[in-house]
Amino acid sequence: MKEVVHHGDYFAYNAFKTSVNAHNSTDEYLAICKSVSQWYKSRQRRPPGPVGLPFVGYLPFLGKEPHKTFWNMRKKYGDIISVYLGSKYTIILNEYNVAKEVLSHPGSLDRGPDIFKHLDNVGFIIENGAPWVEQRRFTMTAAKDLGLGKEYWGILIMEELSILIQKLRELKGRPFDISEDLLSSLNASILSLLIGRRLGKDEVDKLHLSAEYSEIALTKTGPSNPTTLVPGLRKAFEIFKIAGYDKARKTILQFQSFMKEEIQRHKTSQTFQDIPDFINSYLEKCSEMSKTNNKHHSFSEKMLEGNLALLFVGASDTIYSNVVWMFRIMCKYPDIQEKVYTELMEILGEDGQAKYEERDKIPYTFAVLMEGQRYASNVPLSPTRRANQDIPVNGCVIPKGSEITVNLWGLHHDPAYWDEPEEFRPERFLMDGGTKLIMKPPSYAPFSLGRRNCPGETIAWKQILYYFSEIIKKFEISTPPGIDPEFEIINGLLTRLVPQPLCFKERNI
């Protein structure tokens, strides 16, 4: 394959030439030649990629959908592409086996330092090494003990969902943009479990604040977002009030204050000190650790604030975006929608509830959701990792310090794994005549790969299944007459669909 040299490598090479010209000593000359030779050999082993521009790298050429640009570059450069995004030397992984090998390597366990920098503090997701292990382990254990993904949380979800269903009934099938109400419903259930109370009717502003925060967290960042990659650009946008970044900063600070207030409420109010919620569980752990001889632990109130933000974002906008995609897809494929409805009614009946733990009872419905994750790929590029050592793969070496991201959209649309990937076919995830699910097919990674994959996968599936199945059972979803479903996206770390009014016509059961 033809060698492709980045602009940064030219600078390094010229520096070596200058050094050679400035020295007359034979020993120094030989030493420099050896260094040049070693540098050139290491460069030959780097993955190939295009030459970008100074300072901005390849950013100006990515277009509105960078994941598709990277996928098209595969024809020229292969499965592993190196590219400068701003000043960051970044590796794009375009193929499943390559991505699996790299993300399973211990050298790729570190998180890229800037991906969530604009949020200041999002807990263990930005930690590396021992703090990441310690915080992730505690957070996930505590979340499970408190009911995340279990029956108690299911009750909370159904309570909030029933309010949304009543709102849809009152509309009597008239076109309605469900976006705001759906997001508020999803947010209310997760917040009640995290902060130990249900927001009151006079606290609607906090639900709006939470919705704005989750949108900012996931749409104003990403592995290809210039404000994430170009040093100082986000701050400049905030100062000069460009593209709403000044308002975004204000929202982030307000949400942080909201979380601090709730923590303080738990510390000072006897009423809240006995509630079995995440805040109390974490504060108890902090107290426990303060009494030990371990002075190097990572438990603190600041980390608690970050973990609350992380759990909220992980169970909010990502789930919301997926449910919106599913409703829009059902409008495009009404025959599939009817098959889902038929299965749900035959297996569960009007009053039965779909449970993630019993998804094998409704294989077609769950296959539709799995295909929705593949088809939409609403997290098209995985959050960046940073190589903490050289990583050999496919005859190349990913150099230490490189940023690494997986083209998840590419994995999900690779014709080597998916026949006609642009088509929506739930049958891809079924076997034995459609009676059994294929849970882990190759090149399927909606929650990423490796040890730093999404920690909330089960939680996400449960909430998506609840909302999707209950609304399909009660309503026929369609676009207004004469209007096709739209799939224009708002790009970021995840792809939100541009809002579109839909009709929710109550079924005659």
Automatic annotation (TrEMBL):
Location in or out of the cell: Endoplasmic reticulum membrane; Microsome membrane
Pfam families: p450
Amino acids binding heme: C454
Keywords of this entry: Endoplasmic reticulum, Heme, Iron, Membrane, Metal-binding, Microsome, Monooxygenase, Oxidoreductase
Recorded coiled-coil stretches: none
Necessary cofactors: heme
One GO MF term: oxidoreductase activity, acting on paired donors, with incorporation or reduction of molecular oxygen, reduced flavin or flavoprotein as one donor, and incorporation of one atom of oxygen
Entry GO terms, CC: endoplasmic reticulum membrane
GO BP, sorted A to Z: organic acid metabolic process; xenobiotic metabolic process
Membrane topology: Peripheral membrane protein
Family: Belongs to the cytochrome P450 family.
Function: May be involved in the metabolism of insect hormones and in the breakdown of synthetic insecticides.
Name assigned to this protein: Cytochrome P450 2J6
Organism the protein comes from: Araneus ventricosus
Gene: Cyp2j6_4
